[in-house]
Amino acid sequence: MDKLDKIDLFWIQNKEKELSDKKQQIDIVDKEIQKIYGSTEVLKQKRNNIVENEIPSLEESQQAKWQYLLEQYSETFIQTTGIPQYQQELSRYSTTKGILKKLESSLQQTQTLRSKASEKLIALRGEYNKTQRTSFNFADTSTNQEFEEELHKISDNDLPKYRKQIEEAKENAMEQFKNDFLYKLRSNIENAREKIDELNLALKQIKFGDDSYQFHIASNPAYQEYYDMIMSKELEFGNTGLFSDAFTERFQSTIDNLFAQILSLSENDTGKTEQNVALFSKYKTYLTFKLYSTNGSGRKEDLSKSIFTKSGGESQTPFYIAILASFAQLYRTTDISDSGNTVRIVIFDEAFSKMDDARIIESVHLLRKLDLQAIICTPPDKASDLHPISDKTLLVHKEQQGKVYHSTVVEFSKQLEDTYALPENHS
Q1: DSSP state of 234
Q2: What is the greatest pairwise CA distance in the chain?
Q3: Residues 106-164: pLDDT tens digits?
Q4: CB of 190 within 8 A of CB of 234?
C-alpha cells in the first residue's frame, strides 16, 4: 500500500493526456497524408491529361498554324522578316494581345487598300478581256494563272516577232528625222543666199553719196564641219540620195557628233538640250552675215569692224541701207511682172535722229531710187531738212489745255517753223 501511495497519479494522467494528444496528431497527419495522396492522384491525372491530350493538341494546333503561315508566306520571309519582327514587337508590347491591338488599325487599312486594289484589278482584267476579245476569269482575284500564261505567251512568242520590226521602225524614224533636219537646214541656207542675192541686186545700181553697199554671206568658221556636211554635193536630193554611201562614209562622225548634242543628253540636262536644239536648228548658226561699203576710189570696208568707231550718222547709215534694201526685196521692186505691183509703204519713227542734213537727203534719195513710198515721223529739228525733198510734210502741234492735250495737224511750211519755236510742242 505504501508503494501504491507513493506512485504519482498526476504524472500518469499527464502522460496519458500526452499520449492522447499524440494519437490525435497522428490521426490529423494520417488524414493529411490521405488528402495528399488524393491530391497526388488528381495531379497525376491532370499531368497525364496534359501529356496525353493537351500538349499533343497544342502541338497539332501549332503545326496547323505554321502550315497556314507557310501557305500564306514563304519560309524565307517568315524566317528573315516575320519572326524577327514579331520578336521585336513582342519586346515592345509584352504580350500578343498588345501586338494585336496595335496592329488592328493597320490591318483594317491594309484590308481597305487590298479591297480597292482587287476592284482595280478586276476592272483592268475586264478591260483587257474586252479590248483583246478574251474570256479569262477576271473576277477571281485569288489566282492570276490565265493572265500570267497570257503574259508569258506574249513575252515569249509575240514580242520577239515584233521587236525587230520596232527597232527597224525606230531606226527609220530617226533616219527620217535626220533627213528632214538636214534638208530643212540646207533649204534655209540656200534660201538665205537667194535673199542676199536679191538684196544685193537691189543695191547694185544704188549709191549712198559716193558709197555703194553689198551684203556678204559665208559659212561660220565655228561650225564649218557641219556647214560642209549640210551643203555637201553628196547630199544632192533626188540624185545620189540623202545619206548615201558616199555621204555616210565622208560625214558619219560629223552626223553622229551633231545629233549627239541634241538627242543624247540625259534627263538632268533638259536645259542644255533645249539650248542645243535652238542653236543647231537655226540656219543662222552656220552662217555669217556682213555688210561692205565701197567708196568712190574703190576702197572696200567691212562695216561690222568699223561701225563702233564711226560717228552717230555714219553708224546709222548701214542700218538704213539694210532696212531699205530689205523692204525693196520684200516688195519685189525690181520685178516688172504683176507680182512686183506692190504697195511699197515704209514707215519710220524717230527717223534720221543722228544724221546730218546731207545724210538725210541721201537717205530720202535712196528711198526714191528703190521706188519705195515712205511715211517718216521725225522730231521738228529734222523737219526743215526733210521738207524740201518730201512730197508733203505735216506738222502735229500739241497744246495743253488744263490737264488735257489737244493735237492739231497742219501742213508744214517755213512760216510754221518760224511760228512754233518750242520743239517740245511738235512731233
Answers
A1: G
A2: 193
A3: 778 888 888 898 999 899 989 988 988 888 888 888 888 888 888 888 888 777 777 77
A4: no
Q: How far is CA 269 from CA 178, 263, 281, in A?
A: 21, 11, 18
Which three-class secondary structure state does DSSP give residue 232? coil
In order of 193, 221, 222, 289, the CA distances from 218 in angstroms are: 9, 9, 12, 7
DSSP state of 389: G
Asked whether residue 376 is assigned to any structural domain, the reply reads: yes
- CA-nearest of 243, 266, 229, 275 to 174 is 243
Q: Decide: residue 45, CB within 10 A, 0-12 exposed, 13-18 middle, 19+ buried.
A: exposed
Domain span at 356: 342-427
Q: Which of 171, 183, 275, 169 is nearest to 231 (CA)?
A: 183
Please give the C-alpha separations between residue 74 and each of 81, 88, 252, in angstroms, as whole numbers. 10, 20, 55
Residues 6+ apart with CB under 8 A from 333: 202, 340, 342, 344, 370, 371, 372
Q: Is 299 part of a structural domain of the chain?
A: no
The residue ranking higher by pLDDT, 306 or 67, is 67
